Amino acid sequence: MQKFDEMFAQLPQDGAVQFQAQSMGGMSQLQVQGVRDHYRTYAEWLSRQSHEMMRSRREEAEMIFRRVGITFAVYGAKDEDGAGTERLIPFDLIPRIIPADEWRRMEKGLVQRVDALNRFIHDVYHEQEIVKAGVVPEAQITGNAQFRREMMGVNVPNNIYSHIAGIDIVRAPDGNGEGRYYVLEDNLRVPSGVSYMLEDRKMMMRLFPDLFSAYKVAPVMHYPDLLLETLRASAPSTTDDPTVVVLTPGMYNSAYFEHAFLAQQMGVELVEGQDLFVKDNFVYMRTTRGPRRVDVIYRRVDDDFLDPQAFRPTSTLGCAGLLKVYQAGNVTLCNAIGTGVADDKSIYPFVPKMIEFYLGEKPILSNVPTWSCRNPEDLKYVLANLKELVVKEVHGAGGYGMLVGPAASAQEIEDFRGALLARPDGYIAQPTLSLSSCPTFVERGIAPRHIDLRPFVLSGREVQMVPGGLTRVALKEGSLVVNSSQGGGTKDTWILEI
C-alpha cells in the first residue's frame, strides 16, 4: 500500500488518505481516513469512479477545448518545422475545494491588499508621502523600470490604477504546523488567466453535473458582468454612457484567446492599435458606420507599446497620441500606465508596511519571507544558502529567470551565483515552501501535485471579486512551478457557500 499524505488534506501534516492501487483495471480505491471535511463527499464519489471513465472525461475535455480554441502560445517554443507552437493548457478533472470560512478571510485580505496597493500607486505619482516617511526608499521607486514619470500628477477616476489585479496565493504550513495562506506575488499590470477559470467551471459542470447537486459551489460565471461594471464605473466624467473596448496586441499574443473571450462575454469590441486613432484630444475607433468615441480601454498591451509617440517609437501595437488623451482625462486605461511600479518583486516586501501606512491595519494575508539581494546582508545569506532557496528576477514572469535551489544542478547554482554577484539588485530570494498539494489525475492515476491560486480582484467604485480564482497546478512530480509557460495545468476552484 502506498500512502499519499496530502491527498485530500492539501497539507502534508493534515493527510490521512491512503491510496490502494488496483491491478484489475478499475479506478484506484481511496480508503477515506482523516479527509478534511469539505473534501469527504468528493473523495467518496471519486472512489466509486473507474479509471477508464475519468480518462474518457479527460479526453472529452481536451477535444472540446481544442475545438473551441482554448490554446496558449508558448514563446520561444518551435515545432519540428520551426514554426511557433500553441498548445492546450492541461486541465485537471479533480477540483480544488476551499471551505467558506477560509475564503471569507482570504477575500478580506485581498480587498485590504489591493486597496493599499492602489493607494501606494496614487501616492507614488503624487505626494510620495510613503517615501517622505521613510517607509519605502525613493530609489526603489524612481529606479524601478516600471516607474513612468509621464504619470506624475496625473489624476485617474476614483484614484484607481489597478482595476483588475491577479494576486497569487499559496497555502503552506506556518510555524505551528497549521495551514496558512500567503501572498506569493501581486500581478497589477495585465494579469491573465481568468478565461481559464471560467472555461474550467463550464467544463466541470458539463462533465460532472451530479457533483454540483452534491456540493453547493459558489458561482463564478458572472465575472464578465462584474468586469464590465468595473470598467464602466472607471469611465471619465466626459460621458454618461461609456464605450468600452478590449485592446489586444493581436492574434499572435499568448493570451489572445482570453482577449477575444472576454470581449465577446462582455459584448464589447475587440480592437487592435490600428483600429484606434486620436482626434481633438479624444480616442476613436474605426467602425463600418464611421468613427466612434472610446471612453474606456481594457488594455492587454504593455506600457512600452501603448503609444509610439510617448514610449517605444517602433511599436505598431498601440495608438499614437494616446498618452496625451489619457493625461487630459478624456479616456481611461485599465489598468493605468505605470501600475507596474507596485508589482515589481523588489516592491513586494514593502506591501505589509503599505497596508499599515495607508490603512492603519495589520495585514490579513502574510507575505512569504523575502530577502532583497540589493541589501548586502540579505545577499550574503542568499549566496550561502542557494541550495535551499528560490531566487527570482525582480522583473521576471511566467516562471522564467528563477532558480529553485533544491531542484537545481550544481552548475545552475553556480551560474546563478555569478548573476547575483553581477547584479544583486535584480533579484530577490524566498524559502522553498512546502506548498499545499491537491489530488490530480495523472497518467498513472491519482497523485498529489503542488498548486497555487490566482483570485481576480476588481476595483471600480468598490472592490469585488467572484469566489475563487484560477488554481494552477505543477503537473511534473515534485515541481513547484505552476506557470502555464512551464508546463503547468489548471483546475476548477470550488468555494463552498456554507
Automatic annotation (TrEMBL):
<dbReference type="InterPro" id="IPR016450">
    <property type="entry name" value="UCP005522"/>
</dbReference>
<dbReference type="InterPro" id="IPR051680">
    <property type="entry name" value="ATP-dep_Glu-Cys_Ligase-2"/>
</dbReference>
<dbReference type="Pfam" id="PF14403">
    <property type="entry name" value="CP_ATPgrasp_2"/>
</dbReference>
<feature type="domain" description="Circularly permuted ATP-grasp type 2">
    <location>
        <begin position="95"/>
        <end position="474"/>
    </location>
</feature>
<dbReference type="InterPro" id="IPR025841">
    <property type="entry name" value="CP_ATPgrasp_2"/>
</dbReference>
<protein>
    <submittedName>
        <fullName>Circularly permuted type 2 ATP-grasp protein</fullName>
    </submittedName>
</protein>
